[in-house]
Amino acid sequence: MRFFVGLDLGQAQDYTALAVLERIENGEYHVRHLERFKLGTPYPAVVERVRRLMLTRPLLNRSVLVVDRTGVGAPVVDMFRRENLRPVAITITGGNSVSSGEGGYHVPKRDLVSTLQVLFQTGRLKVAAELPEARLFVDELLNFHVKIDARTAHDSYGAWREGTHDDLVLAVALAAWYGERQKKMAPVPKPAGW
């Protein structure tokens, strides 16, 4: 696969965000599309928007759709499956290792974040400044941090200021994580009935 579509699903106070990454021959990823949905956008409208995007852009109809299954995501993933978009479902966890099951993967947030760190540090993630949401993405990156609890040594990741969001960061991270691991991973077990 050459294109990876990441979708971070929001809820009432969080935005839903969409990112399209293209992996080119030298292993770089170019962010080709960033989109943040209006707060309160119904999930059927999100599914329709993603479906339209993937079916109307010739190269994207052969892409991989990676969807955040955490929280409310399971029924939305099912909606994508009914549309034959074959989503890869990712449940974001606070755990220590990646596991597969339930038609997708359970991935520690630290793995998603570290994938972005490595890509940025090695100059392999490029974001075109002319993308409408590029500045917002950069702002989210600047507000994103790791916090380690001194008592438990538990790490958490996210925006460090109240009122800031990390939806675009997570959409890009989902696509990049899967893109980096696509060739290394075993196939996802299909959920019952598929």
Walk me through this protein's architecture:
By secondary structure, this protein is an alpha/beta fold. Helix 3 packs across helix 5. Helix content is 32%, strand content 27%. The strands form two sheets. It has an eight-stranded mixed beta sheet, sandwiched between helices. It has a two-stranded antiparallel sheet with strand order 9-10. Helix 2 links the parallel strand 4 and strand 5. The protein has one domain: 2-Layer Sandwich (Nucleotidyltransferase, domain 5). The two termini are 22 Å apart. The protein has helices at 43-56, 73-82, 109-121, 134-143, 167-181; strands spanning 3-8, 17-23, 29-36, 64-68, 88-93, 99-101, 104-108, 125-127, 144-148, 155-159. Mean pLDDT is 84; it is low at 185-194.
Blueprint of the fold:
Elements: E1 3-8, E2 17-23, E3 29-36, H1 43-56, E4 64-68, H2 73-82, E5 88-93, E6 99-101, E7 104-108, H3 109-121, E8 125-127, H4 134-143, E9 144-148, E10 155-159, H5 167-181
Parallel strand pairs: 1-4, 3-8, 4-5, 5-7
Antiparallel strand pairs: 1-2, 2-3, 6-7, 9-10
Helix pairs in contact: 3-5
**Known CATH architecture:** 2-Layer Sandwich
Biggest beta sheet attributes: 8 strands, mixed
Distance N to C terminus: 22 Å
Gyration radius from CA atoms, angstroms? 16 Å
* Apparent shape: globular
Strands, count: 10
Question: What name does CATH use for the topology?
Answer: Nucleotidyltransferase, domain 5
Instruction: Output the CATH class name.
Output: Alpha Beta
Please list the strands of the largest sheet in the order they lie side by side: 6-7-5-4-1-2-3-8
* Count of structural domains: 1
Strand and helix order: EEEHEHEEEHEHEEH
Structural class designation: alpha/beta
Number of H- or I-type helical stretches? 5
Average pLDDT value?
A: 84
The poorly predicted ranges are: 185-194
Which strand-content bin applies to the residues? 25-35%
Helix share bin: 25-40%
